[in-house]
Amino acid sequence: MLSTTASFWPLAAILIPLLGAVPILLSDRRPNLRESWTLLAGLGLFAAVASMLPRILGGEELVFTIVEVLPAVPLQLRVDAFGLFFALVASFLWFFTSVYSIGYMRALQEHGQTRYYASFAVAIAATIGVAFSANLLTLYLFYELLSLSTYPLVTHEQNAQARASGRKYLTYILGTSIGLVLPAMLITYALAGTLDFAAGGILAGKASLPVVALLLGLYVLGFAKAGIMPMHAWLPAAMVAPTPVSSFLHGVAVVKVGVFSILRVIFDIFSPDLLRSFDLGTALTWFVAITIMAASLVALTQDNLKRRLAYSTVAQLSYMVLGAAMLSTAGMTGGMLHIAMHAFGKITLFFCAGAIYVASHKKYISEMDGLGRRMPITYLAFFLGALSIIGMPPLGGFISKWQLLIGALQSDQSGLVVVLLVSSMLNAAYFLPIIYRGFFAPTPEGEAATGLQEAPVFCLLPLAVTSLGSLALFFYPDLLLRLVQLAISR
Amino acid sequence: MMQNLPLFVLVAPLLAALFVNVLGRLGRGWVAPLVLGSLAFSTLAAVGVLMRVLSEGTIRYTVGGWRPPYGIELVVDPLSALMLLLISAVALTASFSALPTVERELAGREHLFFTLYLILIAGLIGLAITGDAFNLYVLLEITSITSYGLIGMASGRAPLSSFTYIIMGSIGACFYLLGTGYLYLLTGTLNMSDIQAILPGLHGSFALATAFAFMLVGMWIKMAFFPLHGWLPNAYSLAPTGAALLMAPLMTKITIFLMIRVMFSIFTPEYVFLQHVGFQSGIVWAAAIGIVCASALALAQRELKRMLAYIIVAEVGYMVGGVWLANTQGMTGAILHIVNDALMTLCLFLAAAAIVYRTGNLQFESLRGLYRKMPVTMAAFTVGAFSMIGIPPTCGFFSKWYLIMGGIEAGQWGYVVALLFSSLVNAVLFFRLIEIAYFPAEAPAHGDGHHHEPPGQRQEAPWRLLHPLVLTAIALVVVGLSTGPLVDIIHLALPAGF
Fold it and tell me: Is B71 a member of any domain?
């Protein structure tokens, strides 16, 4: 049985990176000190999150009330299995992203690095805040904080293209959260009198089919960070940001905060039972299936490596919502697991794209012929990451896709099985040629055909860790599985 | 001593106005201590009044021992105690910043400026606590006439805009006075609670309805309720910086408070909402249309203060609509928004004052690269902007929350949509500015991935302008997080019947 304990640790986990931004700003003129703060905050955050693990596995939930703001809706943090699952993945990957950032930003002699590291620290604090939110209002607060803290990262380049992308980013992310999520939240509050995330939902018996359908629509489209079509266009545009931002925020934190929010709402505001009784789960699966297919097809046509990865992300995010929308145990397990599996795979791919850019200043796949022979470590890691996304054993992505397939079969949705399989083939079709060209295509005229030309070790180390992580998750998925099972069974 | 506390709040700036005028002629050094000292005293006394009202209930004070209904009665209920504190605290904070800007813009005339300035504050304070319908008119004119003077002190087109304001303001005052005259003819008294006690016998009277309509429209002109807002944008954007700092946060908000007074302390909720059922929903719709139009007009501005002026007009629509929703949530939201909007407007105008101090004007083009030049100012400005957009945990989010909840409860979907639309427009307005200020004046040189920092030309505003600004920005978050206790106070302050 679950027991609830008051604890300061959830707040501490958020405060460590949030307050870490202060010494980062103050060490503006001393880069080494500044990056030490980032790494220290990263370690501290991961330690704080990991320290809560035994108690969550023991069936506890940790609660911290920050302040009572609205009747029956305090700003409150609560760590449960699902939240911790997400926070663990995010904080682990943040540390390695920070290491990677040092290699990437220094190798390119980027400007505005202090602003960059400070914004990054606030962004991860907001991400952890979303993971640990006990109610929808608190989640909304951190969701907005994340949108705002990532704006300076998207517009980092400070040229016309970055400005346009930043505008698009805010229009989609902030526009939908104010225009769709806020009214949905207010209607939910007016109906239920609370916004708490509760097993079994808070809307059961309080809303009719049209209202529930409307709310579900508002939430699914309103959490535009999840990139469900037609709310996806900000993600490819945001690729103008430095690659560590793309890898961590637009491969892991920001986009998965969107998915996490949608999953939270499905599980703990509506509850699977309610959606099943109105048969809205099936409708949602087909809605996101469109995104899966369309985004995969568009990814095929992209020559810019980062944009191809972005469209791949759009498709993969919908896998997670798809799994949750199946409303079966296997489907939900698959959807939640895919958050972690895709995170490790996609961050590896982005790290590799950044490493290629650092080492050779190449952005387009058509220029990368023969590059794998000069950057074998990077390309090997890319290979592993790609296999994980495609869903091949022995990589983590296989496990979540397998669960999704079982979920589709269990719910007698053979159409979804087809979608999943075709999409996997499309994944293979847009990833494998990159690797083939890297290793086997002839080197273009005027470029050195042999000799190593790898990115700095600060870039290589993180991508090695995350790619091996993808591999390890296939063999040792027990911890994540236990957290997911705890989350589903409560 | 303690029972004279409400009077102390009022008298301190009034006396100081006298001394500023006399001593300020002898030496400029007298101005700042008198202004800040009297307002600090007022603020402390206002804290005392609020605490006393919360523990002991409404204070009734008869000036000079003349008993009501003949003498003038001061009534300090929880709502007016809250207004007292708001006015004196905002005025005090604004004054820190007003002093250096006036020194620069109106050198040699500081004592004249601050005489009017302090009388204006005394008038506002008087408005918060008066219990007499005619006295309210007198004080309203005191605040208006001092405002005309303050606005007219600036050069350029300011006297003209002041003149427009005089015309509009006088019409508004006449309307209110006419209404009061009708009431006096009908009831034979000017004391608010006295009128309220007599009125039930007059329900259904056409003359009474006329009186109510006159008073209401008079208030609307004074608060710049769309489409009666024509005087406001010019008046606020052309006024001396120091005057705008005081008027923008307080004038419209206090007039909203006066509307609440007229509606529920002279008239009653039953009269206002039940006798004129059709009007209630019509006024909410008017507010909704006003919000949308004023937001759209704000989009068309290319100067910061003018943009803020149109936002103020939109915010007036928020509060009028909230009051006329006729439910607890809407009323709570409206009163909460009086407090919050005063603070966020103060924050943004303080930021504007700091910017104009360094750049000389507030055209959007002059704001380019300002994050690098004035990082502290812009950080505080950003907080104020977030509050206007309504991003938690800044206070703007929470009053909007109550207002929208009230709209949903009342089924006023037009108003709900207008509020959401205005939030989105505010997001566009402020992020457009943030984008301009975030990107440097000249694009950084782009080599192959090599960028170089432009030479650091930090040119922050002087600390006298910065401290009140930073303090207000922090207050926006603190007040936002204290929404719970604040709403508890507001629930005490809700007019009878809610």
Answer: no
Is the previous residue joined to B393 through a cis bond, with omega within 30 degrees of 0? yes
Number of structural domains found in chain B: 1
- Look at residue A67 and tell me if it is in a domain: no
Identify whether B366 is part of a domain: yes
Q: Which residue range(s) make up the domain with B436?
A: 276-442+457-498
pLDDT of residue A175: 92
- Is the residue at B281 inside a domain? yes
Q: Has residue A466 been placed in a domain?
A: yes
Q: Looking at the 3D structure of chain A, how many domains does it have?
A: 1
Q: Evaluate whether A470 touches A369 at the Cβ level (below 8 Å).
A: no
A422 burial (CB, 10 Å; 0-12 / 13-18 / 19+) is: middle
Sheet holding A3-6, edge to edge: A3-6, A60-70, A73-79
Q: Per the structure block, which two tokens stand in for A308?
A: 């191809």
Distance CA A270, CA B375 (A): 44
Residue A3 lies in a domain: no
Angle formed at CA B250 by CA B244 and CA B251, multiple of 5 degrees: 80
For chain B, list residues whose CB is within 8 angstroms of any CB belonging to chain A: 386, 389-393, 398, 401, 404-405, 408-409, 416, 420, 423-424, 427, 431, 435, 438-440, 443-444, 446, 448-453, 480-484
Complex ipTM value: 0.90
Whole-angstrom distance, CA of residue A194 vs CA of residue B333: 18
| A140/B390 CB distance under 8 A | no
CB A358 within 8 A of CB A456: yes
Which residues in A296-333 are b (16+ Cβ under 10 Å) and which e?
bbbbeebeebbbbbbbbbbbbbbbbbbbbbbbbbbbbb
Structure token pair of residue B345: 């407007």
Average pLDDT over residues A108-126: 89
- List the single best residue of A182, A218, A240, A243 to mutate versus B (max B Cβ within 10 A): A182
Residues of B in Cβ contact (< 8 Å) with A222: none
- Of the pLDDT bands very low, low, confident and very high (cuts 50, 70, 90), residue B144 is very high
Domain range for A319:
279-490
Per-residue pLDDT for B450 more than 50?
no
In a domain, A352, yes or no: yes
* Mean pLDDT of the region B76-90: 93
The answer to whether the beta carbons of residues A337 and A484 sit under 8 Å apart is yes
Counted residue by residue, chain A has a size of: 490
